[in-house]
C-alpha cells in the first residue's frame, strides 16, 4: 500500500490551526508572528514529541527531518527531501475555497549549496510581516525540541541548518509555541472522538478479559508470578489483541507504556512508575495500562482488594465518591484547577480529611495523539478552562496511606494484608468533556464498585463453629442470618410456597401438607417407572438395529475425591466452591457440600442480578440430547445409567452477596473451557506417531539458517526464528523460545524454491506422519525469508519517508 495524503483533511486541520493561531496570537501563542514547526530525525525512544504528534495530526504520517513554516498571512512552506515533497505534491494548488490558507509551497532539499537558497526563501517569509516597528520579530517554535546549552539539536543537517539561521538572524527572537499547540490539539474533532472511544473500549476489554482473568487464575491456583511477568503478559495482549479473541488489526494497535502492576505494600501511583521484580502478593493490587488505537491513546487503572479490612474498604468508598465529585467539576467553562480543589474540599468535609496529604500532585492530564500533555494537567494551579471536545485521563488515588494495627488485627489470620504497613489506591478513567453535560462522560466503563473489585479467598476459621454453637448471629448481618435460618428450616415449604408461621401452627394445614407430599411422591414413582420402561424398550430396539455386532466402549467412572476428608479446606456448608485442581464443583445441598465433576455440567447461567444474584447450573440428563459438545465419556455414562438412575437436570442458587456466585460462574466457565480443550487435544494426539528424540550436534559447528519465518504459525501470530540442522533432524527455534523438531526419516518430500522471479526463497517439507504444532496437527511445514532490494513499511502506526541515501543503505543491508 502506497502512502497517500488525505488532502481535504490536511487543509481542514491546517486551516483550523491557522485560525486558532490568529485568534490567540497575543495570548497563549506568546505574540509570535509565524510558526516554525520542524521535525527532527527519527527517534523511537521519544514517540510523543510534539512535532511527531503534529505530523500525525496533519499528514497522517511522520515526516522526519522536515521544516514546516506557517505565516500570519496563511502561506505554508515545507522544506524536505525529494521523496517527501512528492508525497505532499498532491496538496499543491488545491487550497479549498474560503480557507485562510493561501497556498502550499514545497522546497526540495539542495545539498549542493547547503540549502542556502531554501533558507533565504524561508527567511523572507519570516521577515515579511512579522512584528511591529522597533520590536524583535518573534518566531514560534517547539522550545522543548529547540537546541540549547543543555540539549543538542535533534534534527539532521537540514533542520539544524535552519535552526542556526534563525538563531543568528538579527531582529528575530524565538518563543514557545508548545502551549498554543497543546490547547489547539486538545479539542478533538468528531472523527478523533470516535477513535478515542474505540481506543478506550480496547483498553477496557484488555483489562477485563486480559488482566482480571489472568489475576483470578493466579490467585485461584496460588501461582508465583512477579509484577514484571504479569506486566509483560498484559503488554503482549495489547500488542496482539487476538489473544483475547479481539478482532483488531495488529498494525492499528500499540502499547502506550509498559503496564504497571503493584502489590505488597509498595505503591507508586504516578504514571511514570514501573513494575518491580517482586512476586505478586494477594493483598491490594493496582494495575495501570494504556493502549493506542490508530495512534490515539487511552489509559485505565483499577485497584483490586483481596481479603480487605473494613478500614481499607471504607477508604476505597471515599475514593469512589471523590471521583464522582471530580467528574461533576469537569464541565465546559470551569478551570482545570477546579478538579483538584473539588477533591480537596470533598476530603476536608468528610471524616477522612487526613487523606488530603496522600493525594498526588495532579489528578490527570489531557490525552489524545499525545499520551500526556504537560501543559494540560489537572493540578492545583492550572487556570486553563475546560472546552467541549477535550479528553482527559482522570486519575484519582491515595499513596502511602498507613494501615492501622486495629485493621490488621481485624483482618483474616491468613490474609496477606497483615504484612503491609501502608497501602495505595488508584482509579483512572477516560473522560470526555461534552457541551451540555452536567459532568464528564466516562469512556472506560469497567466496573469499579467495591463488589466488582473485592475478592475473599480466606474465610474466617471459626465461622463453622460459631454457626454450630449458635453464637455467630451477632457477627453476621440480618440478610445472612435470615438466609441461614431458611436453609436450616425447610419444613415450612409446601408445593414450592413458603407458609406463614400462623398457618403452620394449625394441625389441619400440617396434615394437608403431609398428604400432599405423599401423593406427590407416589406420582413421581409411577412416572419414573414408566419412563424407565420406555427407555429400556428404546435401548432394545437400537441393539437389534445394530445387530449386536460389537461391544460398545465402556464408560469410565468419574471420581474426584476418595473421601470427604479430601475436600478443600475452605469448603463451607452454604457456599458454591470450585476446585480447579480436581476438576469438580462443590455445591451445597441441604447444608451439605456435594461434589459434581465438571464433565457432568452442561452449561452455567448467571442472569442479570436484581435484588439478589442467581446462579443456574444445568446438567447432562437422560431423555434429552446431550449435544455434540458433550464429553464422550459423559455421553456413555448417561446411556449406561439412563434405565434405572435418577438425574438432576438443573440446580439454582440464590445469594444476596453477588461476589461468590459471580466468581463461581467465572471459574466454572473457565474449568469447562479447559476440560473441553484437553479433550480436543487428546483427540488430536490420539493418532500421532511417536517421533524419535533429536540428537543435537555438539562436536562441530551447527549449520544454521537465521531470520526465517515459519508457516503455519504458533497461536495465530508471525513466527520468526532460526533453523538448525542436527544429526538426525532439524530444529526450529523461534524468537519466543518455541521449538519444532523435524526428524529426517519423517520427511517424505522436501521442496526448495529459489528466489528467481519471486520475492522469497523457501523450503517446504511434506511429512510422512503429522506432528503437533501448537494445538493442531500439521503435515506440511514451510520456512522462508523475503529477498527484496528495498522496502518501505507503511502499515505501522508511525510512518517515515526515506531519501535515496537511506534507500541505498537499506539495500546493502538486505543483500544475502
In summary, what is this structure?
By secondary structure, the chain is α+β, with helices and mostly antiparallel strands.
Structural class: alpha+beta
Strand arrangement, largest sheet? 28-27-26-25-31-30-29
The number of distinct β-strands equals 31
Helix fraction bin: 25-40%
Which outline best applies? globular
Descriptive account of the structure:
With about 800 residues, this protein is an alpha+beta fold. It is built from 19 helices and 31 strands. Helix 7 packs across helix 8 and helix 9 crosses helix 10. About 5% of the residues have low confidence.
Key terms for this structure?
alpha+beta, seven-stranded antiparallel sheet, single chain, six-stranded mixed sheet, 23% strand, 816 residues, 19 helices
Describe how the helices and strands are arranged.
Layout: H1 7-23, E1 34-36, H2 50-58, E2 67-71, E3 75-80, H3 82-88, E4 103-108, H4 116-128, E5 137-141, H5 157-168, E6 172-176, H6 178-186, H7 190-221, H8 227-239, E7 253-255, E8 260-262, E9 284-293, E10 296-306, H9 310-329, H10 337-349, E11 362-366, E12 373-379, E13 391-402, H11 405-410, E14 422-432, E15 441-442, H12 450-453, E16 454-455, H13 463-469, H14 478-488, E17 493-494, E18 497-498, H15 501-504, H16 507-546, E19 577-579, E20 584-589, E21 592-597, E22 601-605, E23 613-619, H17 632-641, E24 650-655, H18 658-685, E25 704-711, E26 719-725, E27 729-734, E28 739-743, E29 747-753, E30 760-773, E31 776-786, H19 804-814
Parallel strand pairs: 1-5, 3-4, 5-6, 10-16
Antiparallel strand pairs: 1-2, 2-3, 7-9, 8-9, 9-10, 11-12, 11-13, 13-14, 14-15, 17-18, 19-20, 20-21, 22-23, 23-24, 25-26, 25-31, 26-27, 27-28, 29-30, 30-31
Helix pairs in contact: 7-8, 9-10
Amino acid at each position: 500500500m502506497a502512502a497517500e495524503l488525505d488532502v481535504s483533511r490536511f487543509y481542514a486541520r491546517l486551516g483550523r490551526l491557522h485560525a486558532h493561531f490568529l485568534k490567540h496570537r497575543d495570548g497563549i501563542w506568546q505574540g509570535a508572528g509565524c510558526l516554525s514547526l520542524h521535525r527532527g530525525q527519527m527517534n523511537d525512544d521519544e514517540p510523543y514529541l510534539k512535532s511527531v504528534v503534529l505530523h500525525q495530526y496533519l499528514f497522517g504520517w511522520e515526516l522526519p527531518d522536515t521544516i514546516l513554516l506557517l505565516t500570519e498571512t496563511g502561506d505554508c512552506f515545507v522544506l524536505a527531501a525529494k521523496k517527501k515533497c512528492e508525497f505532499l505534491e498532491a496538496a499543491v494548488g488545491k487550497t479549498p475555497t474560503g480557507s485562510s490558507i493561501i497556498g502550499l509551497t514545497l522546497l526540495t532539499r539542495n545539498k549542493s549549496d547547503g540549502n542556502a537558497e531554501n533558507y533565504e526563501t524561508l527567511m523572507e517569509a519570516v521577515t515579511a510581516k512579522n512584528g511591529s516597528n522597533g520590536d524583535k520579530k518573534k518566531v514560534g517554535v517547539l522550545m522543548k525540541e529547540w537546541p540549547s546549552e543543555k540539549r543538542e539539536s535533534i534534527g539532521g543537517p537540514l533542520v539544524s541548518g535552519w535552526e542556526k539561521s534563525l538563531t543568528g538572524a538579527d531582529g528575530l527572537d524565538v518563543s514557545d509555541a508548545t502551549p498554543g499547540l497543546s490547547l489547539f490539539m486538545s479539542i478533538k474533532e468528531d472523527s478523533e472522538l470516535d477513535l478515542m472511544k474505540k481506543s478506550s473500549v480496547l483498553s477496557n476489554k484488555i483489562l477485563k478479559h486480559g488482566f482480571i482473568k489472568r489475576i483470578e487464575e493466579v490467585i485461584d491456583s496460588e501461582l508465583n508470578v512477579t509484577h514484571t511477568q504479569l506486566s509483560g503478559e498484559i503488554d503482549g495482549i495489547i500488542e496482539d489483541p487476538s489473544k483475547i479473541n479481539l478482532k483488531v488489526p495488529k498494525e492499528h494497535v500499540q502499547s502506550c507504556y509498559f503496564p504497571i502492576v503493584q502489590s505488597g505494600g509498595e505503591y507508586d501511583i504516578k504514571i511514570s512508575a514501573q513494575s518491580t521484580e517482586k512476586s505478586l502478593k494477594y493483598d491490594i493490587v493496582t494495575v495501570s495500562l494504556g493502549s493506542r488505537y490508530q495512534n490515539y491513546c487511552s489509559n485505565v487503572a483499577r485497584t483490586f482488594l483481596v481479603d480487605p479490612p473494613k478500614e481499607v474498604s471504607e477508604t476505597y468508598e471515599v475514593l469512589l465518591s471523590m471521583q464522582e465529585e471530580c467528574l461533576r467539576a469537569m464541565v465546559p467553562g470551569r478551570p482545570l484547577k477546579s478538579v483538584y480543589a473539588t477533591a480537596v474540599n470533598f476530603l476536608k468535609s468528610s471524616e477522612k480529611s487526613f487523606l488530603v496529604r496522600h493525594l498526588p500532585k495532579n489528578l490527570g492530564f489531557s490525552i489524545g495523539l499525545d499520551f500526556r500533555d504537560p501543559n494540560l494537567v489537572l493540578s492545583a494551579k492550572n487556570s486553563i478552562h475546560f472546552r467541549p471536545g477535550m479528553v482527559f485521563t482522570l486519575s484519582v488515588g491515595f499513596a502511602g496511606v498507613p494501615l492501622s494495627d486495629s485493621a490488621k488485627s481485624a483482618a483474616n489470620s491468613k490474609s496477606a494484608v497483615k504484612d503491609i504497613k501502608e497501602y495505595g489506591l488508584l482509579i483512572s478513567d477516560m473522560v470526555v468533556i461534552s457541551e451540555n453535560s452536567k459532568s464528564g462522560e466516562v469512556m472506560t466503563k469497567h466496573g469499579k464498585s467495591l463488589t466488582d473489585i473485592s475478592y475473599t479467598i480466606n474465610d474466617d476459621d471459626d465461622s463453622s463453629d460459631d454457626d454450630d454453637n449458635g453464637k455467630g448471629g451477632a457477627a453476621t448481618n440480618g440478610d445472612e442470618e435470615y438466609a441461614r435460618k431458611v436453609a436450616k428450616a425447610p419444613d415450612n415449604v409446601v408445593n414450592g410456597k413458603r407458609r406463614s408461621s400462623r398457618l403452620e401452627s394449625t394441625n389441619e394445614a400440617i396434615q394437608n401438607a403431609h398428604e400432599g407430599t405423599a401423593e406427590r411422591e407416589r406420582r413421581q414413582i409411577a412416572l419414573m417407572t414408566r419412563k424407565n420402561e420406555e427407555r429400556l424398550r428404546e435401548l432394545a430396539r437400537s441393539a437389534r438395529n445394530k445387530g449386536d455386532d460389537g461391544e460398545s466402549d465402556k464408560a469410565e467412572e468419574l471420581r474426584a475425591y476418595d473421601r470427604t476428608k479430601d475436600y478443600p479446606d475452605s469448603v463451607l456448608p452454604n457456599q458454591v466452591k470450585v476446585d480447579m485442581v480436581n476438576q469438580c464443583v462443590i455445591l451445597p445441598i441441604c447444608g451439605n457440600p456435594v461434589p459434581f465433576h465438571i464433565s457432568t455440567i452442561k452449561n452455567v447461567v448467571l442472569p442479570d442480578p436484581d435484588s439478589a444474584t442467581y446462579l443456574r447450573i444445568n446438567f447432562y440428563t437422560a431423555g434429552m440430547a446431550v449435544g455434540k459438545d458433550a464429553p464422550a465419556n459423559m455421553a456413555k455414562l448417561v446411556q449406561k445409567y439412563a434405565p434405572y438412575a435418577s438425574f438432576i437436570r438443573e440446580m439454582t442458587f440464590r445469594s444476596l452477596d453477588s461476589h461468590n456466585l459471580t466468581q463461581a460462574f467465572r471459574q466454572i466457565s473457565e474449568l469447562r473451557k479447559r476440560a473441553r480443550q484437553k479433550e480436543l487435544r487428546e483427540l488430536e494426539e490420539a493418532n500421532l506417531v511417536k517421533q524419535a528424540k533429536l540428537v543435537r550436534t555438539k562436536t562441530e559447528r551447527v549449520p544454521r539458517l537465521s531470520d526465517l519465518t515459519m508457516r503455519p504459525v504458533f497461536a495465530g501470530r508471525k513466527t520468526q526464528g532460526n533453523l538448525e540442522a542436527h544429526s538426525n533432524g532439524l530444529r526450529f527455534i523461534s524468537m519466543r523460545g518455541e521449538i519444532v523438531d523435524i526428524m529426517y526419516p519423517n520427511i517424505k518430500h522436501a521442496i526448495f524454491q529459489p528466489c528467481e522471479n519471486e520475492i522469497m526463497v523457501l523450503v517446504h517439507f511434506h511429512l510422512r506422519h503429522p506432528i503437533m504444532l501448537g494445538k493442531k496437527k500439521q503435515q506440511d511445514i514451510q520456512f522462508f525469508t523475503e529477498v527484496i532490494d528495498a522496502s518501505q513499511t507503511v502499515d505501522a502506526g508511525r510512518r517515515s519517508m526515506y531519501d535515496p541515501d537511506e534507500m541505498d543503505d537499506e539495500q546493502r543491508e538486505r543483500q544475502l
